[in-house]
Amino acid sequence: MKCKKKGKFILILLIIILSIYAILSYFSTNVSPIITKLTSSKIKSISLRALSVAVTSVISEGITYEDLMSVIRNSEGEVRVMQAHTDKINLLARQISTKANENIKNAQLDYVAIPIGAFSGSMLLSGLGPEIHIKVVPITNINCDYISEFSSAGVNQTLHKIYVNLRATIQLVIPTIKEIEVNSKVLISECLIVGKIPDTYLNSTSLENMMDLIPES
Predict the structure, then answer these.
(1) DSSP secondary structure, the chain, as one string
(2) Are the C-beta atoms of residues 170 and 105 closer than 8 Å to each other?
(3) Looking at the domain assignment, is residue 216 inside a domain?
(4) Contacts of 87 (CB under 8 A, 6+ apart)
(5) What is the CA radius of gyration of the chain?
(6) C-alpha to C-alpha distances, 127 to 30, 44, 117, 123, nearest whole angstrom
(7) Assigned domain for 217 exists
(8) In three state form, how does the secondary structure of 146-179 look?
(9) Has residue 215 been placed in a domain?
(10) pTM for the full model?
(11) What is the per-residue pLDDT across 69-122, written as a single tens digit (0 to 9) for each?
């Protein structure tokens, strides 16, 4: 009699263990990827907006092309040197990065609302039903650099555009670890330059690299 009870207990315990394993396996295979995708999409959208607002809010204080670059000409009016203003450029990068970090923190990314249909494991149902809040643990790292672009604007005229490029790497714990990257490229200044520009500068796409460039004689 005792052997039968013991055998029944083991059978019930085995069924419970297999059921838990099946549920966890289903969640890991079907539900978790959908929740991760929806969460990442929402975080990416919010972060992208935070980065763009950071750039526009800082440059709205008044940034001119002359603040970032000096175009030095020779006695004949030809462009000889394009000098990047290191101090101003680095200060601007720090201000934008700081503002971007503040915006992301203020966006309150600790919780993300996900429709309950996402737990069905079906993408078709993932947007249905009331929303529940999932706790995430965002860890953010922001890098700021500049992009320099030259384009022809007519005879002996070149349009120089300067962009700031913000890259935010956000690590989410939901509870699996997922790393997403958000990029925001925003035009901050441009100038129409009359006269031939040395190829040394035209071939450079990074404003930081231009700081050390010396055109050929």
Answers:
(1) -HHHHHHHHHHHHHHHHHHHHHHHHHIIIIIHHHHHHHHHHHHHHHHHHHHHHHHHHHHTTT--HHHHEEEEE-TTS-EEEEEE-HHHHHHHHHHHHHHHHHHHHHT-TTEEEEEGGGGGT-GGGTT-S-EEEEE---EEEEEEEEEEEEEE-STTEEEEEEEEEEEEEEEEESSSEEEEEEEEEEEEEEEEEES---HHHHT--BHHHHTT-----
(2) no
(3) no
(4) none
(5) 28
(6) 15, 17, 6, 8
(7) no
(8) EEEEEEECCCCEEEEEEEEEEEEEEEEECCCEEE
(9) no
(10) 0.67
(11) 888 888 777 788 788 888 888 888 888 888 888 887 777 666 677 776 666 666
Q: How many domains does the chain have?
A: 1
**Domain assignment present for 91:** yes
Q: Give the domain range for residue 20.
A: 2-210
* HSE toward the beta carbon, residue 167, CA cutoff 13 A: 9
- Is the torsion defined by CA of 59, 63, 64, 70 positive or negative? negative
Phi/psi-derived region of residue 154, left when phi > 0, alpha when psi is between -120 and 50, beta in every other case:
left
